[in-house]
Amino acid sequence: MTQPIDLIALDLDGTLLAPDESISAGDRAAIARALKAGIRVVLVTGRGVDTAVKVARDLGTNLPVICAHGALTKDFRANRTLAHMPVPLEYAKAMLEYAERKAVDVAVYAQESFWRVRGSRVYMQDMVGPAWREVPSLLEALHGGAPTFIRFLGQEAVAVLQREFGDLPLSYRYETWFDFVECAVLNREASKRNALARLCADFQIASERVLAVGDSRNDVPMLAWAGIGVAMGNALPEVRAAVRYVTKDNLHDGVAEAIERFCFAAEKKTA
Q1: Above pLDDT 90, what percent of the chain?
Q2: Going from the N-terminus, what domains does the chain have, and what CATH number goes with each?
Q3: Would you state the torsion angle of the CA atoms of residues 172, 175, 180, 185, taken in this order, to the nearest 10 degrees?
Q4: Which pLDDT value is given to residue 123?
Q5: Are 175 and 160 in contact (CB under 8 A)?
Q6: Residue 172, by phi and psi: left (phi above 0), alpha (psi -120 to 50) or beta?
Q7: Residue 131: band (very low, low, confident or very high) from pLDDT cuts 50, 70, 90
Q8: Among 55, 69, 220, 214, which residue's Cα sits nearest to residue 151?
């Protein structure tokens, strides 16, 4: 028998967010219904803190946000960092020094901001704006300590990463967006799954009572850990094949369908 759901974990890009970063009325209504029913909702994203906090405040969610592929958990209401697992400074410094010498396209997330070299190529629209700092050297990002994660941008940069640094004891998260590929380099213990498991342990919520919804490769371990893991209809075939359940895509209220099916289906049967 399926356990009742106490917590819903939602990825952002490709899951809750449409390509224009909007949230559908149907998804909003389903999340509001879940919150009203006492179900906790947590956002779990590869993005930095700023977007996650903005969406969390907009939706009125009731838990800290899990950001940076699971490397950073932030209680935004108290402005307190609950967990941070950065890339060890010795590895980060070596990578950035090499990238600077060889003009490799990389970006850094550190001190809750993204950093890129001034004048470097902008691969996607979200690489501009107040969340990004442009600096002469990315080594400036290390002045505040070890970075949260490093992004190698484009096929050429990813190939350099694999050749020069692929044997380091770190975690490598590969993502493909149409014809663009990137790799996020993280602390080997950083993942959405691990961060969600820690947060659930803090609230004494068993994995069997968690509904997780996502669309990308870095979501798969989280979806497998949750009692119910659901892939979006727009997810890669390998992601859909890795889980038991698939919902509609992010343009057709896929999140709402998953919430209604797994949190409220029993109510419909008894109505």
Answers
A1: 89
A2: 7-84+190-270 (3.40.50.1000), 89-187 (3.30.1240.10)
A3: -20
A4: 87
A5: no
A6: beta
A7: confident
A8: 69
Strand arrangement, sheet containing 149-153: 132-135, 113-117, 106-110, 149-153, 180-187, 170-177
The structure tokens 């979006």 sit at 232
Q: Which of 95, 107, 68, 108 is nearest to 191 (CA)?
A: 68
pLDDT at 268: 53
170 is written with which tokens? Answer: 């770190």
Using the predicted structure, report yes or no on whether residue 1 has a pLDDT greater than 70: no
Among the residues of 144-212, which ranges form H helices? 155-165, 192-202
Phi/psi at 29 (5° precision): -65, -40
- For 230, other C-beta atoms within 10 Å of its C-beta total 28
Total-model pTM? 0.93
pLDDT-derived band at 15, boundaries 50, 70, 90? very high
